[in-house]
């Protein structure tokens, strides 16, 4: 059903009267020709909301056969024409989080698409105990809290979620556990897109010592083990974060690697972790070395051998040349690593998007953000049809964040968040079903600023 909506022809569209477009001050700006990007975004949002209502009504309908449902969709689709919007993106707010006992304030590493075709995510706050929650949503935005953290031994303030090879959900919490230093947990879900079954199992509680504390990254690797990072703790005279390893059963926890910081030239306080196509783990960290210290990209084998493949700050101590403070990393189908930095690109210091070969021999800055309409503090980057897409948590037309695209070295803003019902400060963006992309915003969406779940159709 969603595919039919998303693949409708994009024909020219001109409003029959001047469109009233909301602006940040709370007033309206008149656009008579429908060609201004803000006007286009306004009209797409109206049509997207109408389409969303149609699909929800269809979902509740009593048409029991697949043929009957498809007939209704095709009939409606043939009558619906969306505007030609060039590089604009059609965004639908699927759900506005309501806060306790509902979820509140989704996190940056907190959204996945499970094998049962349900979206699962985590929120730092909300839930029955306001200690964070795990929520489920259908692709049409029917949201349910499937687990509320108690804030004690089961954890508090979840920080990451991944889908395991066994189709279970695994994740981490910043606090809670037996000593209050965070946990690793598992939750079993139905094979169909329904409520979670069973109870949450705490696989490991961090002690805050050599094992680290406050885990915030997790990977279910192809060898069947969980790997993750903590920003602090570890072994040695300068324990500045760890990489850990754990069996999905909860046995065999080991501090896989301890960062010693810039004076050991291995990075510090890791910020991201992925598994590459070659089986090695790749990630980003602060530090780098004693001279530059603007951050690093590292590679670590499953045998625990770590190598720094790039140190930021190649041109200046503050990283203005190639970025400062790397915060996200992904790998494309071409084998290249792509990522973002929170700073760099002086004088704006708005952050960068970069690419790097896995062996570290070739590094390029693809774009430096000005901190204005093009965004500020870029985060996750994903690829679609060879192009890069990502979000900025600040900046954009209304200074509430944006969705951007980089194609052929040219960067364009696809959507600017208004900070109202569409949310503010987007933190997560993942590929979904049939070409759709899903994401969350950390705040806005309602009067309590509890955040949103959105779906966006990227041109």
> What is the gyration radius calculated from CA atoms?
22 Å
* General shape: globular
Mean pLDDT: 81
Question: Could you give the order of strands across the largest sheet?
Answer: 5-32-31-30
End-to-end distance, in Å?
18 Å
Major sheet attributes: 4 strands, antiparallel
Taken as a percent bin, the fraction of beta residues is 35-45%
Poorly predicted sequence stretches spanning 5 or more consecutive residues: 1-86
Query: DSSP helix count?
Result: 3
Structural class by sheet pairing and helices:
mainly beta
Quaternary structure state of the chains depicted: single chain
Total E-strand runs: 32
- Helix-residue proportion: under 10%
Structure commentary:
There is one protein chain. This protein is mostly beta strands. It has a domain at 2-83. It has helices at residues 2-6, 37-60, 66-79; strands at residues 10-11, 19-22, 28-31, 82-83, 90-96, 103-113, 119-126, 133-137, 143-148, 156-163, 169-175, 183-187, 201-205, 217-220, 226-230, 242-246, 254-258, 268-275, 281-286, 296-300, 306-311, 324-331, 337-343, 352-356, 363-368, 376-384, 387-394, 402-407, 410-416, 424-431, 436-443, 452-457. A 4-stranded antiparallel beta sheet has the order 5-32-31-30. A hairpin with a 7-residue loop joins strand 16 and strand 17 (254-258). The longest helix has 24 residues, at 37-60. It is globular and about 45 Å long.
């Amino acid at each position: 059903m969603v595919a039919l909506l998303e693949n409708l022809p994009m024909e020219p569209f001109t409003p029959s009267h001047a469109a009233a477009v909301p602006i940040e001050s709370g007033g309206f700006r008149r656009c008579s020709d429908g060609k201004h990007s803000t006007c286009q975004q306004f009209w797409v949002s109206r049509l997207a909301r109408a389409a969303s209502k149609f699909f929800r009504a269809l979902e509740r309908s009593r048409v029991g056969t697949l043929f009957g449902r498809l007939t209704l969709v095709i009939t409606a689709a043939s009558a619906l024409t969306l505007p030609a919007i060039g590089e604009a993106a059609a965004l639908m707010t699927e759900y506005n989080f309501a806060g306790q006992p509902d979820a509140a304030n989704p996190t940056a590493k907190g959204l996945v698409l499970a094998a049962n075709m349900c979206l699962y995510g985590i929120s730092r706050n909300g839930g029955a105990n306001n200690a964070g929650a795990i929520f489920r949503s259908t692709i049409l935005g029917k949201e349910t809290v499937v687990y509320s953290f108690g804030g004690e031994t089961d954890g508090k303030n979840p920080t990451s979620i991944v889908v395991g090879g066994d189709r279970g959900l695994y994740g981490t919490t910043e606090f809670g556990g037996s000593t209050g230093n965070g946990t690793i947990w598992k939750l079993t879900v139905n094979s169909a897109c329904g409520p979670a079954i069973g109870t949450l199992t705490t696989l490991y509680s961090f002690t805050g010592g050599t094992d680290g504390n406050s885990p915030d990254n997790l990977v279910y690797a192809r060898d069947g083990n969980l790997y993750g990072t903590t920003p602090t703790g570890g072994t040695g005279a300068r324990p500045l974060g760890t990489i850990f390893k754990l069996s999905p059963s909860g046995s065999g926890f080991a501090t896989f690697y301890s960062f010693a910081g810039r004076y050991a030239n291995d990075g510090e306080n890791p910020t991201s972790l992925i598994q590459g196509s070659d089986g090695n783990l790749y990630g980003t960290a602060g530090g780098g070395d004693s001279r530059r210290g603007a951050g690093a990209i590292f590679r670590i084998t499953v045998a625990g051998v770590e190598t720094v493949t790039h140190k930021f700050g190649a041109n200046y101590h503050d990283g203005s040349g190639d970025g400062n403070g790397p915060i996200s990393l992904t790998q494309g189908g071409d084998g290249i690593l792509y990522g973002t930095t929170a700073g760099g690109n002086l004088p704006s210091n708005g952050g960068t998007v970069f690419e790097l070969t896995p062996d570290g021999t070739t590094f390029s800055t693809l774009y430096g953000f000005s901190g204005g309409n093009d965004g500020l503090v870029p985060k996750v980057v994903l690829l679609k049809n060879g192009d890069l897409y990502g979000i900025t948590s600040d900046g954009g037309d209304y200074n509430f964040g944006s969705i951007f695209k980089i194609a052929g070295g040219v960067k364009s803003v696809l959507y600017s968040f208004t900070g109202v019902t569409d949310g503010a400060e987007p933190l997560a963006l993942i590929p979904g079903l049939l070409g759709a992309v899903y994401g969350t915003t950390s705040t806005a969406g309602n009067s309590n600023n509890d955040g949103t779940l959105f779906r966006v159709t990227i041109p």
